[in-house]
Amino acid sequence: MTQDWNHLSKNISKRLAPSMAKDHPNLPVVKEDGCYYWGVDGRKYLDFTSGIAVTNVGHRHPRIVEAIKNAADELTHGPIGVIQYESILRLAEELAEIMPGEIDCFFFGNSGTEAIEGALKLARYVTKRPYMISFTGCFHGRTMGSLGVSTSKSKYRKHLQTDGNTYQIPYYRPEKFEDEDGTIRENEAIEKLEEDFAALFNHQVSPDEVAGVIVEPVLGEGGYVMPPASWLKSIRKICDRHGMLLIFDEVQTGFGRTGNWFAAQTFGVTPDIMAVAKGIASGLPLSATAASHKLMQQWPMGSHATTFGGNPIACSAALATIEIIKDESLLENTVNAGAHAVKEIEKLKQRHSVINNVRSLGLMIGIEIVSPSTGKPDGEAVLRILDLALDEGVLFYLCGNEGEVIRMIPPLTVTTEQIDEGLRALDRALTRFEKERTTT
């Protein structure tokens, strides 16, 4: 295996586009199971990335594998509309039971960016308004429509001219509205939000031309920022005031990641449209644009379509995913395991001056790394710390505009023992990093 792998690896830069293959840390693996990867080097690695918040029920859960095998015995492809099949119909029923508010109707796609594209099209179609509003720092995908509302990093938009039909206002920033003791000045945050919308409407676009407002209820790739519920509720009120549709991008926050099925329920805010993907089918390509039946019925046949969306095998995996989250009480485990992780990370913060803010909601945890001498975000340090952590046997990922946040998103099945194992490895990595810095 190693010899074959070495031969293939030599050609990776030749055969795979850099935009696909060049990410961090590029760990060669041969197997996954539960919370672990097995590397080509024979080592076992604890995975605190869940395939970027995808395998919420753990890698290769036996019930997921069984569902995939059983589904493949009957159907491998289903162009819904041309044919009908049980798994997609059952999945729609199951999703309707766990969605917030009156959201109960779905258009299935294959990826998060497709779900966003569907949400943008739906909002513009039913309102007959041309413009969207998004928030600076949010990430919604890389296809051209979703890229038009994504602003987490300017490099994602380089040389790519979007349609120009989107306006941005600032996302909630904790450093502006939170005191050192963690107290949030919510009234100030809401006043600033209202001012930003008012300035936009006074100087750039009339609200009666805005189809919708799209927002991540928790800033994901942009740095794991959790706004207060009152801030999101204020966006809901502003949308209602002007007849604009509220779109939640729950691609990363969905399917238990925040301790509820969706962040909408965690914050007590119901959007008009939701985009979900990632954790929906435990690694198989599937997504959904979701809205109420009343809203979705205004989007008639031919206004949107798909060949591969709602694949029968992926839908079967999604059904199994929902069942596992229920049967194994993973929402409760997410709350408890997340609280345990934060408590232990706060202990690390006392020992390592490079750790600044620790932001968390369920098992969506961001550890901000700064330069102790300047207090400024240090993305270069994060990359080195992640390398050292991998050497210690645990895999993390990064996020933030400068890559300054260590992203900790383990499967929702993670145990407190595994969290302790991973954080001990991170502790050793931070110690090694700080020793390196003092000797250079």
What is the number of strand segments? 15
Separation, N- and C-terminal Cα atoms: 39 Å
**Strand order, sheet with most strands:** 4-10-9-8-7-5-6
Q: What value does the Rg take, in angstroms?
A: 22 Å
Q: Report the helical percentage.
A: 40-55%
Indicate the proportion of strand residues. 15-25%
Shape: globular
**Major sheet summary line:** 7 strands, mixed
**Helical stretch count?**
17
**SSE class:** alpha/beta
Put the structure in a nutshell:
By secondary structure, the protein is α/β, with parallel strands linked by helices.
Question: Can you give a write-up of this model?
Answer:
This protein is an alpha/beta fold and 440 residues long. Helix content is 42%, strand content 17%. The chain contains 17 helices and 15 strands. The protein has a 7-stranded mixed beta sheet, sandwiched between helices. Strands 1-2-3-13 form a 4-stranded mixed beta sheet. β7, α11 and β8 form a beta-alpha-beta unit. α5 packs antiparallel against α14, α15 runs parallel beside α17 and α16 packs across α17. The mean pLDDT is 94.
Topology, please?
Elements: H1 2-10, H2 12-15, H3 18-21, E1 29-33, E2 36-39, E3 44-47, H4 50-53, H5 62-72, H6 86-98, E4 103-109, H7 112-127, E5 131-136, H8 144-147, E6 166-170, H9 174-177, H10 186-203, E7 210-215, H11 229-242, E8 245-249, H12 263-267, E9 273-276, E10 287-292, H13 293-296, H14 312-327, H15 330-351, E11 355-361, E12 364-369, H16 379-391, E13 394-395, E14 397-399, E15 405-408, H17 416-439
Parallel strand pairs: 3-13, 5-6, 5-7, 7-8, 8-9
Antiparallel strand pairs: 1-2, 2-3, 4-10, 9-10, 11-12, 12-15, 14-15
